[in-house]
Amino acid sequence: MEAIPVSASLVIIGNEVLSGRTKDANLAYLGAQLAEMGIRMMEVRIVPDIEDRIIEAVKALSARYTYVFTTGGIGPTHDDITAACIAKAFDVRLIRHPEAMRVLAAHYAASGAEFNDARKKMAEVPEGAVLVDNPVSKAPGFRIANVYVFAGIPRVMQAMFESIRHELTKGAPIESRTVSCRLGEGTLAAGLGAVQQRYADIDIGSYPYFVAGGFGVSLVLRGTDTDRLQQAADEVRALIRDLGGEPLEGEPQRDAPQPAA
Amino acid sequence: MEAIPVSASLVIIGNEVLSGRTKDANLAYLGAQLAEMGIRMMEVRIVPDIEDRIIEAVKALSARYTYVFTTGGIGPTHDDITAACIAKAFDVRLIRHPEAMRVLAAHYAASGAEFNDARKKMAEVPEGAVLVDNPVSKAPGFRIANVYVFAGIPRVMQAMFESIRHELTKGAPIESRTVSCRLGEGTLAAGLGAVQQRYADIDIGSYPYFVAGGFGVSLVLRGTDTDRLQQAADEVRALIRDLGGEPLEGEPQRDAPQPAA
Fold this sequence. Notes:
The structure is a homodimer.
Chain A: E1 6-13, H1 15-18, H2 26-36, E2 39-47, H3 51-64, E3 67-71, H4 82-89, E4 94-96, H5 98-111, H6 117-120, E5 124-126, E6 130-132, E7 141-144, E8 147-150, H7 154-164, E9 175-181, H8 185-198, E10 203-211, E11 214-223, H9 226-242, E12 248-249
Parallel strand pairs in A: 1-2, 1-3, 3-8
Antiparallel strand pairs in A: 4-5, 6-7, 7-8, 9-11, 9-12, 10-11
Helix pairs in contact in A: 3-4, 8-9
């Protein structure tokens, strides 16, 4: 199968992530899930709850990548402005989606909570948007053009992703191989660069680490052609042996990371 | 003291962070440290090890915010291209910095490792850049204009930040108050929005959570005026009581987060 380049990007919306108080957990999930589907995460922007910043990020990434995912800012409170910003980014009206109203009305009728104006805000989407099902807490996400708008709470975001993953165009699955060793990066660099030059289709990254027994480096190879990936990994193993090291498969237990250049 | 608006941004460089395999730990550190100094983190971009993407992000953020910090991509291997990209972003030559050469030569002489070309790459900086000391592993970071270039490894990044923090222009310290309760966001939203309207200088965020005993929401207030912050927090507490809830100070132990709209 021919490899189709399918790319993704992510806009993480929220002052709490920017301030460092809340750690984002959605990139790790999305990055891994998409890689399995052959979709490469190419850029992430974390922006505050400010209209201009959200609109700018969504427009820039929507024009550049196959998909944009956004997380955060779709709840009932004043700081939840994502849907309104996406409507402005696409220059369409914000409307109350009839199906979202129906789902939410039934949900609050069952729970006994009042279906007030704040909660009705969660039914607002840009005109023309398609709802994304939220099996966890009912309030839906949506898609407009190539932009998927998800909740920020990881469990809900993951459920929303699961409900749309079948829609996504797949690329050739991106596989990886990790070879570690106890050599310094500066010792490996020249030979590693030469391997990278011979395998332009394989992405080779070098990541130093520190373990109780000393320092080392993990070499991560990524690509869509299993044979080429295996060949490149074999060359990296041979390089390590040539330099007097011992290639270790996978990634060792890490301690406090420390450079070993 | 008059509040000076001082802003910051961060460019996280690295395929490994984008793929979700490596979790960034630098935003959490920088966001918290800068907030204490009254410097607000306004935007983060995570970009791959691709020249155009790095250059674009650095130029965009350098023009917009008081400071740009970058993390990652300053080691000796082929995938470490940050210094070269920053030189291109500022349209200056990449040079071997004499003091960086001296520090690294002494370091490798002492360790017995060869000071080879790959390791000499770690002395390369854009012409006109000022070195940033690296007490952990010697290879320096640098600053050019309003851009600080740091290592990606958290321990090294933090040491680099410590060595330059005295240079940064401080703003009025940003304080926060957190009030939690067991009410749903949809119940609080109207009253909370009204408090936000009365306190335009206070940033009020609403973050739902799920604990073993049920759901709840943390309301985080941020601002530079302690009195106003206290008044706004008191109004939020009063709102919670008016709605039949009980204001809890700080943030409760969290379980798997779940929305409570």
